[in-house]
């Protein structure tokens, strides 16, 4: 009976409902705050100065889309993330403008646009932002009167995106590779924190932080290499510096195991990694300093020392060594864990195939199309002033990579209410005209600051900005506030019913299938870890496995915010997801110990462990209920596989309640 009650015995809302209402501990991105403030207020000022406030408001709307989409650190990715969605946004507002006031033709057009938007969102992050802007601008164009001729609105919205892009690129001449270099240095620092946490209860948390940071750094460098074909010395050097972190990461589980048995590692290891991070960030190439490390006796200590000395050699050399360059034939060397990206034409064909042949792509497209069609049909049958807000709400709530649809609907309603309070104060007390400019400077600055805190906070920041810009277009003033609240609640209700409850996959999560795939991949990794020592693909396979486990963790965290039964099932299965991560860590530690002098395991012992994992994977695919399974894995209790067997037994002994 304690469930749903606070510590003082009073009724409290469930955790899955309130999780998104707690602000995330994120620093304020001051550069983004300044850019947003200028990008949205300058067009308004220009429009007022030219006596064209409506045109200025449209440019600010385009800038708003650019501000929301500017999420990458690397300049080349930022150009891509801002420019490409703006092109789709221009197409969307053009289609919306052409069907404005045409009733059922507008309903059919927006439904089709929603289908396409949902399907292209499955390709990747940039495609997702492009699909979002395509649909949002189509909804705005079909719901608000735009200035004549028809091409003026897309041009003005695109001009707003160019304003954001210009402000973003002001620092490019002085900081061309600074974001990439800072990302690699940040990954080094997370590795230093990982070694400091070896042997403690915070080790797993730090390892997750390393995985996330490494993924981000690889993604940034991959984007840079895709545009420079891996030929520049700066790009190659950054790749080399990131690559040499992989042996350090492989040695970390062994260091953690050693710390649990013999005490924490010497602080000199973390200090040396931090010194390397400083060298990476500043680009220093002076002579490599001597590493003051204690003598290594255990295999895990030798692994850490060898990896650290190799990293110091690569970080402090002026040019990347031959082991990190591509061979004459164009194939990356075995030490190049990043690899060369496929040509653009190949990636485009893969993306098109993913979009057209993927069942999840069609399912999401159809769900979004159904919700938008219902929203637009509703406002066509019932006269709702400025009814585009209903479809806008549906679009934001149904965004696939924002989290749970159910929780987003709740958070959207809460955030809209909070945003409308500030909007009501502005529209009621601040006179229209030049006062809009300083007000917009303040409100726009809150968008990047609040976006880092969570979805509800982002909604609360964006709502008054959109209302102020809408008022500049139609001059309804305070009369905008209550209709927007009703429209938001209607949109949330449509998304909940037509986008969530009507689709069994929404409330019967497939987290078990994702986890089963991860367990099967772990079994393959166990086989491969103790196979051919010259296996060049083993390291990439390990990187892929850790990245997949990070995605599984994100999927679980999203499922935990769903109402029962999905949230309850995710909570029951969560310990098993953690156990799988620990199996991978234990396997990596065992392989590192073997590579540095420990006796190798019996092949039959390796086969038995992999077989247990495959049986676990098959069991996960066949049930929604966790049952304890007694596992007898024999072997040397002092051997390198003893920790792996222990983690496998722990995973198979996890049992959960019967969930129906």
Oligomer type = single chain
Q: Give a count of the beta strands, DSSP E runs of length 2 or more.
A: 0
Please report the distance between the alpha carbons of the first and last residues: 21 Å
Mean of residue pLDDT values: 78
* Structural class by SSE content: mainly alpha
What proportion strand?
under 5%
Radius of gyration from the alpha-carbon trace, in angstroms: 27 Å
Instruction: Please count the helical segments.
Output: 26
- Order of SSEs, N→C? HHHHHHHHHHHHHHHHHHHHHHHHHH
Overall body shape? globular
Low-confidence stretches: 1-9, 225-231, 322-340, 655-660
Largest sheet: none
Describe what you observe in this structure.
The chain is mainly alpha-helical. Helix content is 70%, strand content 0%. It has 26 helices and no strands. The protein has helices at residues 15-18, 30-49, 53-69, 75-98, 104-120, 125-143, 152-168, 178-196, 203-228, 233-243, 245-262, 267-282, 299-315, 344-357, 359-381, 388-397, 405-429, 436-451, 455-474, 481-501, 504-507, 511-529, 538-559, 566-595, 603-621, 642-652. Helix 3 packs across helix 4 and helix 17 (405-429) packs across helix 19. The longest helix is centred in the C-terminal third of the chain and has 30 residues, at 566-595. The protein is globular, with a radius of gyration of 27 Å. Mean pLDDT is 78; it is low at 1-9, 225-231, 322-340 and 655-660.
């Amino acid at each position: 009976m304690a469930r749903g009650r606070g510590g003082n015995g009073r009724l409290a809302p469930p955790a899955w409902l309130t999780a998104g209402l707690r602000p995330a501990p994120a620093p304020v991105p001051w550069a983004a705050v300044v850019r947003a403030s200028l990008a949205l207020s300058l067009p308004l000022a220009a429009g007022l100065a030219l006596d064209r406030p409506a045109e200025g408001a449209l440019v600010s709307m385009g800038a708003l889309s650019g501000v929301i989409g500017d999420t990458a650190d690397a300049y080349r990715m930022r150009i891509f993330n801002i420019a490409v969605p703006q092109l789709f946004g221009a197409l969307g507002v053009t289609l919306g403008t052409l069907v404005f006031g045409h009733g059922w033709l507008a309903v059919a057009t927006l439904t089709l646009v929603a289908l396409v938007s949902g399907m292209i969102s499955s390709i990747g992050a940039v495609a997702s932002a492009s699909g979002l802007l395509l649909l949002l601008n189509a909804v705005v164009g079909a719901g608000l009167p735009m200035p004549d001729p028809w091409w003026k609105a897309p041009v003005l919205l695109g001009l707003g995106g160019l304003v954001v892009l210009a402000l973003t690129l002001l620092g490019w001449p002085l900081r061309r590779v600074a974001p990439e270099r800072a990302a690699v240095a940040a990954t080094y620092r997370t590795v230093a924190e990982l070694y400091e946490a070896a042997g403690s209860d915070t080790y797993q948390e730090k390892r997750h932080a390393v995985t996330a940071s490494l993924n981000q750094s690889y993604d940034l460098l991959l984007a840079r290499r895709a545009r420079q074909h891996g030929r520049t010395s700066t790009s190659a050097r950054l790749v080399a510096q990131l690559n040499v972190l992989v042996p350090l990461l492989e040695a970390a589980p062994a260091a953690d195991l050693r710390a649990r048995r013999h005490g924490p590692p010497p602080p000199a290891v973390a200090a040396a990694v931090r010194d390397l991070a400083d060298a990476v960030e500043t680009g220093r190439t002076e002579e490599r300093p001597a590493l003051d490390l204690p003598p290594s006796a255990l295999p895990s200590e030798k692994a850490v020392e060898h990896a650290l000395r190799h990293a110091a050699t690569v970080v402090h050399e002026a040019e990347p060594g031959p082991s990190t360059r591509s061979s004459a034939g164009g194939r990356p060397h075995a030490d190049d864990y990043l690899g060369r990206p496929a040509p653009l034409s190949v990636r485009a064909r893969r993306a098109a195939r993913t979009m057209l042949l993927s069942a999840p792509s069609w399912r999401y497209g159809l769900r979004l199309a159904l919700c938008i069609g219902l929203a637009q049909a509703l406002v066509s049958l019932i006269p709702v002033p400025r009814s585009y807000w209903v479809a806008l709400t549906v679009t934001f709530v149904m965004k696939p990579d924002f989290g749970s649809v159910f929780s987003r609907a709740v958070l959207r309603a809460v955030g809209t209410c909070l945003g409308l309070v500030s909007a009501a104060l502005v529209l009621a007390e601040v006179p229209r005209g030049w006062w809009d400019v300083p007000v917009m400077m303040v409100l726009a600055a809150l968008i990047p600051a609040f976006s880092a805190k969570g979805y509800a906070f982002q909604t609360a920041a964006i709502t008054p900005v959109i209302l102020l810009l809408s008022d500049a277009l139609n001059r309804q003033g305070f009369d905008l506030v209550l209709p927007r609240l009703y429209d938001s609640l209607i949109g949330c209700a449509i998304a909940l019913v037509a986008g969530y409850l009507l689709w069994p996959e929404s409330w019967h999560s497939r987290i078990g299938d994702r986890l089963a795939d991860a367990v099967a991949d772990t079994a393959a990794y166990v086989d491969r870890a103790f196979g051919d020592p010259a296996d060049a693909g083993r390291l990439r396979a390990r990187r892929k496995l850790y990245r997949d486990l990070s995605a599984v963790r994100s999927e679980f965290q999203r499922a935990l915010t769903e109402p029962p039964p999905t949230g309850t099932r995710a909570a029951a299965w969560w310990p098993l997801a953690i156990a799988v991560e620990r199996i991978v860590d234990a396997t990596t530690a065992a392989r590192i110990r073997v590579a540095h002098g420990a006796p190798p395991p019996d092949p039959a012992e390796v086969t038995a462990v992999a077989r247990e994992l495959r049986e676990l994977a098959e069991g996960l695919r066949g049930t929604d209920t966790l049952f304890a399974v007694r596992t007898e894995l024999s072997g040397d209790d002092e051997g390198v596989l003893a920790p792996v067997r222990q983690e496998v037994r722990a995973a198979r002994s996890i049992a959960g309640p019967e969930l129906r």
